[in-house]
Amino acid sequence: MPWVQITLHTDPDHTEALEDMLLICGAGAVTMLDGADQPVFEPIKGTTPLWQDTRVMGLFAADTDADLLLNYLQTGWQEQFAGATFPKYKVEILEDKDWEREWMDRFEPIQFGSKLWVCPSWKPVPEPSAANLMLDPGLAFGTGSHPTTALCLEWIAQQDWQYKRAIDYGCGSGILGLGALLLGAEHVLGVDNDEQALLATRENAHRNQINPDAIPVFLPENTPQEPVDIMLANILAGPLIGLSETLSQLTKSGGLITLSGILAHQADEVIEAFSPWFNMHTVTQKEEWVRIDGVKY
After folding, report:
1. How much is the pTM?
2. Structural domain for 84, as ranges
């Protein structure tokens, strides 16, 4: 039996209301997915954190009238959030499938440069002689398909990592730092303000048979202050601007920096914030996102 699926893009403040409306309309299932490759880790007890860009997906029987469904959702939205713009949405017809297999089949190994692959564990490794980073999709995983992660991994794959020490600031699952280590980095510090992110980085290091001493992890206030050769930071524009002096202090003179999580229209503001310490000389864009690379004066 086919299904009708509606997908709505929203934020944490509106997610619960949309879920309730979809269930009232008769959704057989409601799923929430990350819309922007933002890790969410095991929550603190009593909390239910969600992504800033959350996709709320409702699955309905094939005979559902999509027009009536949308009319109800839009009416309910205006009653609860008068004046707020109704979320972007997509309605599609889905064939009946083995949904677990369908989900797994979505994820393929992804290549970055000539030497680095990110691979889910259930797929064969395309190039055994390459640097293969084994990470399974989940709450604490950026698959590499989102532009910000892809931009950073592409940059990492281009660098000479021999004898280099780095910091992955805002490490999340550790995808950037672990990629650097597999490509030959000597040592990477993982830094994140979420202890669950630090746990995820340690677990992913173990999965990839990387010595945990090669990627120790720290909360920001406990970060060792010795400057490193390369600074990696895939966060968001606002936090990056606030961290500009901190990241400068942690980067050697002549050291490299790469920043992402930045929308194209935010690039000038980020460059201005870092320009007292770095020559931010390259902006690379993928879709609406950019990566900014620089060298410490």
Report:
1. 0.69
2. 3-96
